[in-house]
## 1
Amino acid sequence: MGWNSWNSFANIVNSQIVQQQAKTLASNGMKEAGYEYVVIDEGWWLGERDAAGNIVVNPKQWPAIQPGQKDGDMANIAAYIHSLGLKAGIYTDAGRDGCSMYPDSGPKYLNTGSEGHYDQDFLQFSKWGFDYVKVDWCGGAKEKYSGAVQYAQIAHAIQNAEKVTGRKLFFSICEWGSQNPWFWGPGVGEIESTIWRTGGDIIPPVVESLHDTEHDKRVITSKNVLDSFDAGLHPEAQHTGYYNDLDMMVMGMRGMTDALDRTHMGLWAISSAPLMVGSDLTRLSPVTVSLLTNKEALAIHNDPYGLQPIKVDEPTPGIQIWAKPMAIDGRRAVAILNRTDASTQVNVNWDKLGLKGVPKSLRDVWNRRDLDTNATVSVPAHDLALMIVDGEDKTPAEYRANQNNIIGIQARRGPTFARLQYANTSGHVVVVPVKSTSGLFTALALPPTVGSETSTVGLILPRGTADLLFDRQPVAIRELDVYSWQ
Ligand code: GLA
């Protein structure tokens, strides 16, 4: 959760803008709600290196902020962000060239990527004090590289940097879904936690201070938001530590209405997608801020299983019911998405949520009130209702593990929710590749457990999953409980 400079500032990003945004994030309620990363996207350097290959930045764009600092040192802005109790993020490309600020205006700058300098650059980012790095793919795509190979090398460069500085450098992969990163993103280079973009840019940047015909005509529609959501659904790849990235948010930006803001926030929250807000935070309305900081929506987003929702019903075309299994037994987050131009009334069919009978409670998240469990929910055109439902799970099918393998699973319908019970007494997160009969299925990042205790992670199994082979000591796989929802 945090802020990213690209959507609203594109290549005009500089120290002053970042300071102002960070200050706003720290004081408008977002920081308290959990937004913590302040990420500087493309435009922070123009491809210049010194004789030793070190990145050189424009001293006017990144001047000293405190006495004793040097102009042109990226450590200045990282320290400023840290002084507000926030974390700092930076950006590069996996190839030789970056995107050259595509699709914004301005001259083309070559050599803004990290190819040939992975170890040097990621160590430099970490030494400057950055806690997060977004790695784009324009250069990689141009050179026809394999994303799985390059991003694994970058993961290693990141791990090497972390060893030197002792600072965590969060890895954000941005190759727009071009090489199906949901297949190789989980656990790439043995990294314990990562996000990967699943589609192209949600919008071309809308920079309010740039008045030219190109920028003036840019306006956001519901299609931008819905397309990013639709492209981002790869629920089998997403579980504790590994997340599909639906792109930076455009909450409150030009063209967004309160209904669209609700839709956007609801879809990103129920997807446990990164909430990296790309808006100019100083221009957000109180309604937009209250959506971004809605505690119950954020509880859905931060659910420890971190799963994506499953579409369980579409009673009429364009009226969709999405349900996300949560870590608490019998709890679901439910979004009723109205993609149509007309308002609608919906009675949710609880049976589709895998609950026994009628749920115990139904909570309307936006309005923070309890509803009757047989309530009819009204959803205006291009809007979204968000709810938390508590009930009792239908009895799952239980499969005991044999030597870390789970055999003979019946997941005829897909996607299917499952809980995996395991023990990991190693004291640290273990990355476990998981094979199914169809090849490598995913990798899991299993947090440590204590003593004889076990823990669970949530999974969404692809249709037809029959056997799962987990092959990594010292983790002990105990049991898989498979829930049938329909
Ligand atoms: C690509 C990325 C965007 C942004 C721009 C910067 O288009 O997908 O998120 O980083 O590059 O040029």
## 2
Amino acid sequence: MLSQAGQALGMTFRFLDPATEISAEGLGEHIQADYDDSDARRRFVDGLDVITWEFENVSLDSVRWMAGRCPVHPPADSLRIAGDRLHEKTFFVDHDVPVPPFRAVNTLADLEAAVEEVGLPMVVKTRRFGYDGKGQVVVRGREDLAKAWEGLGGVPLLAESLVPFDREISIVAARSRNGECIFYPPVENHHRGGILRLSVAPRGEISEAVAELARKHARRILEAMDYVGVLAIEFFQVDETLQANEMAPRVHNSGHWTIDGCDASQFENHLRAVAGMELRPPDVRGHCAMVNLIGDTEKAEALPPREGRFLHLYNKAPRPGRKVGHINLVAATARELEQLLDDTSRGLDSSSLNGIISRLKIRPGSSQS
Ligand code: AMP
């Protein structure tokens, strides 16, 4: 999606990816090698103007090596911070961004002690390599502690309070090389099994005060890292307060709606930022939503064409739990978006999506219609 946006800006691409088949096939030269393959990374940097990533689990050592030879944006340090949940939470705290109570866990005894500090129920997460709900468990009673410790493999963990949130929101922001920041409207996110299923944007239930808080936190984090590019932060909302859950130093799944829902997508603005161009204001086109396609795309591909519905396929082999595409929905009013969402979820016949949408009905008389 980055390289598709970049083609419209006249950019050309080279990809370093260990996979033999990549989503961006045909959109640039593919160097197929491990991220820390020293010969491949030398060939990769040769002649490039700028390097960026769309995936966090790249080799930090290689990114640092490349940064000594070619401009790299965002800063390599953002990968180090976001790549470890302890560093990430500590960074939020150091920059006055509230987070749920947490503690680092290196032994079963630490995990037992965490109960006193963060309370029960709590979520226990591996510090590194967790994504889409992998590498985390909810502990409800002391009797579950040993099972959680063993189940997560006895690796360094973070224990944090299970937040009884009203909703999960995220904000996608971009910062240019000269420090200009733009913000997409915060979106409401719905997960099942730890995987993002649906984002709704912009959502009337997110008050202007909460949106402003999200922008304030995002700006502080962007400036603290002297960040260049797109960054996303996920928050738990409780009443009118926010607690940061995590950040992604890259374009983000909850920003995919911007491809069809905004004049300038997160992909375009990420590229503009890293290439030293001026950012473009998002200019939202209406009431939008994004439905992730998880596992396969068969039913999505069979949906009839419909105004305001846009199918995006990632050219990835189907696999249970894998994000293989998404559908963007754009409507003039909240009512029309609700109808479009209803019809789409019926067509996809997805029980988890239907469950989310039936609880999401837009209230009559809400400010969104
Ligand atoms: P994460 O991998 O940290 O983004 O977690 C995936 C999902 O698990 C989140 O989007 C939440 O739905 C849920 N979750 C993670 N941590 C917590 C928490 N401390 N309290 C409540 N829900 C959580």
